[in-house]
Amino acid sequence: MARARPSWDPAHLPDQSGRTFLVTGANRGLGYFAAEQLARAGGHVILSGRHPNRLAAAHDALEARVAGASVETLLLDVTNPGSIRAASASLRGGIFQRGRLDGVLMNAGIVHTPRQREVTRDGRELVISTNALGHFVLGAELLVTLAKSAARDWTPRLVWLGSMSTRLGSYEPTDLQLDTGYAAWKAYVQSKVVVQALGLEADARLREAGVPVASVIAHPGYSIGGRTAIVTGVNEPTPWKRFRDGLQAPFAQSKERGAWALVRALIDPSVQGGDYLGPRFLTHGAPVRQTPSRTSSDPEVRRRVWEECERLTRSEWPFARAARVGR
Ligand SMILES: NC(=O)c1ccc[n+]([C@@H]2O[C@H](COP(=O)([O-])OP(=O)(O)OC[C@H]3O[C@@H](n4cnc5c(N)ncnc54)[C@H](OP(=O)(O)O)[C@@H]3O)[C@@H](O)[C@H]2O)c1
């Protein structure tokens, strides 16, 4: 497997003119700053989120901060299968006019997980539903569209949001919805083990089926709002939060910097399916290629997680069709 180029400079990205990217959870945090970096590099960016006012604020902020940005918004709640399917359908229509979808950054997530177990409207545990199941369905919905956009010089990408927390303990995902023994931290770490396992299993299945789409995983280290630039409507930490987050300066970074690994995973030409990127110093630093945790790379865990996600979402990835259209 080729190594990601060590010379990557997040401040000077390759020109992305003519490419279209979808970012989930793009109205704030890492998703917003990744979208901003993609737009600054000339890409067309579709900001998606679950709330129209928050999306409008992010849209306005991005246009104000990036002269000439090409950006649009799309309502998409990743815990709602109907919303995912509706957004994917309208996306397919719009993208046909535009011609292509070059990458999806599957970023939306809950970081501060609820203390007590909560469920979505359709009865699924909230954290796994937001962080993993929704994007599993989104990947299935957009796979053929992505494959259609493959070109001689470009393999479209799906980028999954992993976490360094997956290195803390084994957290083998046996009970995805934590029907018993729910704890906030456990729900988060397990959901990220699941996301990483899905990203690696997707890579294996895409290769086996000959689909010209790459599945890549990125993690942002430890990126916090109080170390991040103030952007009206997007990032407005209180003075107390800025002070508190400032105390973590030696090991925390801003969300702008956290987005570097995500953006590299999405556009560095030397990144390949199955690659795993994160900050050089684990919690912070320039994005480099790393090794995912043992549990999420275990082929047996990966297979089990994939099949369980198929069962829970009643959704299967259309590998054969994507391989046909991608030829
Ligand atoms: N920050 C870190 O240090 C860190 C570390 C490891 C991994 N990550 C991962 O990076 C991703 C982004 O984290 P962040 O720090 O940027 O978090 P954040 O600032 O809390 O932003 C989360 C984003 O996800 C959106 N979201 C939440 N639930 C959603 C839903 N049901 N449908 C659609 N969008 C939804 C939020 O939208 P609303 O504004 O509507 O809530 C928001 O735009 C997450 O997957 C997280 O697990 C972050």
What is the element layout, followed by pairings?
Layout: E1 20-23, H1 29-40, E2 44-49, H2 52-65, E3 70-75, H3 81-98, E4 103-106, H4 126-148, E5 157-161, H5 184-209, E6 214-218, H6 239-246, H7 255-267, E7 276-279, E8 287-289, H8 294-297, H9 299-313, H10 319-325
Parallel strand pairs: 1-2, 1-4, 2-3, 4-5, 5-6, 6-7
Antiparallel strand pairs: 7-8
Helix pairs in contact: 1-7, 3-4, 4-5, 4-9, 4-10, 5-9
NADP nicotinamide-adenine-dinucleotide phosphate binds at residues 24-25, 27-31, 49-51, 54, 77-79, 107-111, 130-131, 161, 163, 219-220, 222-223, 255, 258.
Overall residue-averaged pLDDT value: 95
How far apart are the termini?
A: 23 Å
**Ranges with pLDDT <50 over ≥5 residues?**
none
**CATH fold topology:** Rossmann fold
GO molecular function: 3-beta-hydroxysteroid 3-dehydrogenase (NADP+) activity
Enzyme class: oxidoreductase
Pfam family, one: adh_short
Pathway: Steroid biosynthesis; zymosterol biosynthesis; zymosterol from lanosterol: step 5/6
Structure, explained:
- With 327 residues, this protein is of the alpha/beta class.
- It has a single domain, classed as Rossmann fold (3-Layer(aba) Sandwich).
- Helices cover 43% and strands 11% of the residues.
- The chain has ten helices and eight strands.
- The chain has helices spanning 29-40, 52-65, 81-98, 126-148, 184-209, 239-246, 255-267, 294-297, 299-313, 319-325; strands at residues 20-23, 44-49, 70-75, 103-106, 157-161, 214-218, 276-279, 287-289.
- Strands 3-2-1-4-5-6-7-8 form an eight-stranded mixed sheet, with helices on both faces.
- A hairpin with a 7-residue loop joins strand 7 and strand 8.
- Helix 5 crosses helix 9 (299-313).
- The longest helix has 26 residues, at 184-209.
- The chain is globular and about 50 Å long.
- The protein starts with 19 loop residues before the first strand and ends with a helix.
- The model has no long low-confidence stretch (mean pLDDT 95).
- The structure holds NADP nicotinamide-adenine-dinucleotide phosphate.
- InterPro entries: Ergosterol_Biosynth_ERG27, NAD(P)-bd_dom_sf, SDR_fam.
- One of its GO terms (molecular function) is 3-beta-hydroxysteroid 3-dehydrogenase (NADP+) activity.
- Its EC number is 1.1.1.270.
- This is 3beta-hydroxysteroid 3-dehydrogenase.
- Pathway: Steroid biosynthesis; zymosterol biosynthesis; zymosterol from lanosterol: step 5/6.
